[in-house]
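Students often ask why we bother encoding 3D structure as a string. The short answer is that it lets us treat folding as translation between two languages. Here is a chain of 330 residues written in the first language.
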Amino acid sequence: MSEHIIVTGGAGFIGSHTVDLLLKNEKKVIVIDNCSTGRLDNLSHLKNERNLEVLEADINDKEKTSLAYKHAKGVIHLAALADIVPSIERPMDYHYSNVNGTLSVLENCRLHNIQRFVYAASSSCYGIPDEYPTKETAEIRPQYPYALTKFLGEQYVMHWAQVYKLPALSLRFFNVYGPRSRTSGTYGAVFGVFLAQKIHNQPFTIVGDGTQSRDFTYVTDVASAVYAALTSTLAGEVLNVGSGNHYSVNRIADLLIGEKTFVPKRPGEPDITFADISKIKNKLNWEPKISIEAGVGEMLKNIDYWKNAPVWNVKSIEQATKSWFQYLGK
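And here it is in the second language, the structure alphabet:
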């Protein structure tokens, strides 16, 4: 496949939506994914797509992946281990995937003279910021290994842009939600937890009092930001990707309609995440389009996706987050 775009983590949540958009815009795509968190089912609707090739491999496996970079025009690097608690319990795994993996991808890009590189960074690098909406210039305060490893990956990307002139952009994603979000056994993102609970007629487990708010950004808006970055000429910059607003967890529960129960507030979490997106608006002429109401509506239309996801309750959440309180508590 010549003049193609590589999407690492392309069988994942954000990755599969990004692949959809690339193919819609008549790009040839090679997905590299080891399926540790991604699912090939996320690409099953594209099984007859002639412009798509899927390579099931780890990004650290240079022998298996190097050929894919030959003749590649651009790379979108989304592959990573996510979630907070597993990163606290298995920091070496997270460093290997998120830092070493990013370095492996960057080296392949350097050796094959890749023309565009887009890195999926995380707003978790801001930790608990002093200012909202939070600008890209805010102090970096990672609170747990996942946040640290994603930021270290970004540092490598920016260094390769500086030293090797790799035309790279780093996009700091805020709380991304939408169809195909992960249904793994790990306790994680609020929408996956709530939707599985709704399917099984269980109450929504609200952390704290539910007044904490998040910059919930719909996945197709995130994919369009990635595409805007890929097709731009801007390089060596870090850009926030958010919804332009923030919404309380109670508001999400109200939109999903269900009973509520409450679990203790967790240490190391901000009360608000809220991106200042003026930079990406100005630099890439990008802005989000999907309202929270429309986005939640799409989640409910696709609720069957979460029918086999774990159903969390107060007791199982307490067990799953023990490490969180042990290491991050005061």
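Translate back mentally: The first strand starts at residue 4 and ends at 8. Keep this in mind for the problem set.
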